[in-house]
Amino acid sequence: MKVRLKKQNRQKAGSVNPTGIQAESLTDIRPMDNHLTTPQKPQTEDINHQQIQKNQGFNFAEISIFAGGAQGLTPKIQPKFFDRPENITQQSSIPIIQRKLSPDQIKHANRIRKARGLDLLPIEAAKQLNNVEEATGPAPAANQPVANQQPTQTPHQSDAKRSESNFQVVHDYSGIKSTFKELKSWDKVKEQFSSDQKTMWQLFDFRQWYVDSLISVLRDTYPGLIAQSVGSADPTSDYDITISTPGSGKDVEAIKWFNAQVRKEFGVEPGTVFDTNLYAKNYLKVEENIDNQAAMGEQKPDQNLEQVEGEFGKIASLSHDMAALVKQRRYMKQVEWDNYVNQVVNNITDPEQQKFTRNQYEEADSIYQIAASELLGEVKQEINQDGMSDEKKQRIQEHTKLGKAEEEVLSQLPNNKYKDEIRKQLLGAEELQAITHEDSDLVLKKSNELYLDRMAKVRQLQQTIHKLGTGEPTKVEALKAQVQQMLGEAYFYAAEAYHSEGAVKHIVAGVQGAKNPNQKAAVMNSLKPEHFLQSFNEQLGDFLKDLSHYANAHDGKIFYRSSKYLYRLFLAVAELRQYKFKDFPSLQIESKTAHEIAKDIDSQLVAIRKGNKKFDSEDEKNQAAVDTMKEILGVQTASDLKVKILTMAQEFNVKVRSQITELSTPGENTSKDYFTNIQ
Q1: Residue 140 to residues 215, 273, 372, Cα–Cα distance (Å)
Q2: Are the C-beta atoms of residues 545 and 331 closer than 8 Å to each other?
Q3: What is the largest CA-CA distance in the chain?
Q4: I want to staple 327 with a disulfide (CB 3.0 to 4.6 A). Which of 293, 541, 651, 666 is the partner?
Q5: Share of the chain above pLDDT 90, in %
Q6: What secondary structure letter does DSSP report for 373?
Q7: Per-residue pLDDT reduced to its tens digit, 515-565
Q8: Cβ–Cβ < 8 Å for 289, 465
C-alpha cells in the first residue's frame, strides 16, 4: 500500500466582498436599482427596506405572479397549480390580474415584466399609469428550450420548457413550496413523486421559476451577468447553472448570495433541495440561455479561458490529467486504488513513461488526501460549533472503520508512529464518508464554501494577469498555468462538477452544447487526445460515485442510475477513435464497437433512468435493467460490472498514454520559472 502522507495545506483563498442583495426570502426580495453601490455588510443581515423601498411601497410577494417566473409564461386564474395540454383550454395571451393591485404596483410590475420579456398587464387595469407604453408593449417571442436532450415523446413536458406553447401558468406556488420546505431534498422529491409525472412536472416548474427568479435578482445587482444551463430536461434531472460576470469576477460573490438565500428560505443548500448548483465560469465562455431578454441588454460577450502558451502549457496539461484522476481516487478505497494504479503502470512498456505515469497517479492521490482532510476539518469544526445528535455521532463512529484489505496491509507494517499516521489518515476518509451518509447537506455546505474560496483565489489571479498585460510575459504564462491548476482544485469541492478541461469541453461543449452535427464536429476536432483521456477518466470517477451512492440498492437500479456516465465513458472511447486516433485498437470489452455500445446504453438504460420507459413496478424496472445489462455487457451484478469497467479503464489508459505526446514532464527551467512566478 503506497500511502503518501498529507502535505502541508496550501494557502487558503482570501475572502471576497459581500454582495449588495439583502432579503429575508424570495417573496421578500425587492429589485434593487442598478445604480446602487454594493453595501459592505454581510448578506445574512435583514433587508434594508429604507435603502431600496424608493417609490415602491409594496412587497415583492405582491407582484410575484407578474414579475417573476420563467420567460414567456403568464399567469391565469385556475384552482390548481397548472394543468397539462391534454386537459387545459387555451386562453388569451393577455395576463389576468389575480389580486387587486394599486396603479403604482401595476406600473412597477410592468416595468419588471418588460425587463424580463414577459407579457405586460392590460391598460384597462392600469388607468393611472404615467406611461401607456408600459402597459401595452408587444409580447416577446417565446423562449427556446434550455436542453438539447429531450425525449422523443414528452406528453407532460414542462410548461416552463415548452417554447411552442401559449398555455399559461398559475404562479400560486404556496403548496408546491411547502412540499420543498417539508422534504428539503430533491432526492426525496423524486422518491415520492417520480411515478406521478404531472406532480413531478409541477415541482420541476417551481424549481425553475424559483431559481430563475433569484438569477433575475442577481442581474439587478450585477448588470451584465450571464447565466447558462446545459443538461437534460426530464423532470427528475438536475438544474445546474454556470454564471459569468465578464471583466468583473463578481460571479463568486453572486453564487455566495444565491446559496445563502436558498439556505435561509429552505434550511439546506440549493444542491440538496433542488439539485441545483451554481458554478462560476471555468474553461468555457458562458452563453445566455436562461433569459433571452437579458442577452439583449447589458451583457458583454464572454470569452473562453485563456490558453497557456509555450512550455507552461505542459504544466497546465498535467494539472488537468491529475484533476481527472483525483475524481477516480475519491471513489476508490486505498488498496483498490493502489492495485488499479499498479495494473496501469506495470503494463506500460516504456520505462520513462512508466515513471511519469506513476508520478501522475501518486500526485492525484496526494491532492485527494489534502482536499479530503481539509473538507473533513471544516465539517468537524461546524459539528463542534452547532452540535449533532448522539444517535448520528454513534452511527458515524460505527461506520468509521477500514476495510478488510486495508487492515490486512496495515497488519504487515511495523508498529510505529508511521503506521499510526497512515491508519489515522485512512480513517479520516472513512469518517468523511460516514458523515456524508448521515448529513450530506452539511458536507455540501462546507464543500460549497471551500469551492468558492478557491474560485475567489482564481479570480484574484486573473485580475493580476489582467493588470500585468504584456509587461511580464513569463509571469503571465506562469499565472495562467496556475489558474488552470487552481480550477482543478476548486472543482474538487464543487458538487456534481467536472474537474478537468477535457471533460468540460468534450461533454459540456461537444455533447450537450453543440446545436447541430457540424458544430459538434468542430468542437471535437478542436480537442486534443489528452482531452478525451481526461473525459474518460472523469466519467469513470462519476460512474464509481454512482456505484458507491447506490451500493445497497438492487443491481438493476445501480445499472440504470449509473448509466449516464457509463454511456459517456464509451462515448469518450468512440470519439477519440473517430476524431483523433483513427486506428486506435479495440478494447477487450468491445464485443461491438464502443460507439454501438454507447448507443445501446443510451437508448435502453439511460432511457430507463430518464423515465422514458414505463413499467408497472420498481421490480419490473430493475429486472429490465438487469436483462439489458446482461445483453449489452454480459454482466448481471454491479460488482461484476465494476470489475469489467475497471479492467477496461486500465487498458484504455495504458494504450492512450502510450500514444499521446502532450503529457510529459516539463523542463527544469520551466519548473523553476513556474514556481518563481506563481502566487
Answers
A1: 20, 32, 49
A2: yes
A3: 88
A4: 541
A5: 60
A6: H
A7: 899 999 999 999 999 999 999 999 999 999 999 999 999 999 999 999 999
A8: no
What would the DSSP string read from start to end of 46-89? PP-HHHH-TTT-S-GGGGHHHH-SSTT------SSS---GGG--
Round to whole Å and give the CA distance between 266 and 661: 50
Cell of 419: 503506521
Question: Is 88's pLDDT higher than 70?
Answer: no
The phi and psi torsions of 22 (rounded to 5 degrees) equal -135, 130
CA angle 552, 370, 331 (to 5 degrees): 20
3-state secondary structure 80-144: CCCCCHHHCCCCCCCCCCCCCCCHHHHHHHHHHHHHHCCCCCCHHHCCCCCCCHHHHCCCCCCCC
Beta bridge partners of 30: none
In tens, the pLDDT along 182-205 reads: 999 999 999 899 888 888 989 999
Specify the amino acid at residue 669: N
Q: Which helix (H) or strand (E) holds 176?
A: helix 174-183
**pLDDT tens, residue by residue, 614-632:** 899 999 999 999 999 999 9
* pTM of the shown model: 0.76
| Grid cell of 273 as nine digits | 433541495
Q: What are phi and psi of 174, to 5 degrees?
A: -60, -45
Q: Is 117 left (phi over 0), alpha (psi -120 to 50) or beta?
A: left
Sequence-ordered list of residues with C-beta below 8 angstroms from that of 516, at least 6 positions apart, any chain: none
Question: Grid coordinates standing for 536?
Answer: 474518460
Looking at residue 122, its pLDDT comes to 61
Q: What is the DSSP string of 248-288?
A: T-THHHHHHHHHHHHHHHHSS-HHHHTS--EEE--SS----
Q: Is 282 helix (H, G, I), strand (E, B) or coil?
A: coil
Distance CA 336, CA 104 (A): 66
Residues found in the chain: 679
Sort 164 into a burial class: Cβ within 10 Å, 0-12 / 13-18 / 19+: exposed
DSSP 350: -
Q: What is the Cα–Cα distance from 125 to 662, expressed in whole angstroms?
A: 66
Cell of 668: 527544469
Rounded Cα gap, residues 553 and 562, in angstroms = 12
C-alpha distances in Å from residue 185, one per residue of 81, 271, 277, 377, 499? 21, 8, 13, 25, 25
Instruction: Give the Cα separation of 318 and 493 in Å (integer).
Output: 19
- CA 103 – CA 123 distance, rounded (Å): 11
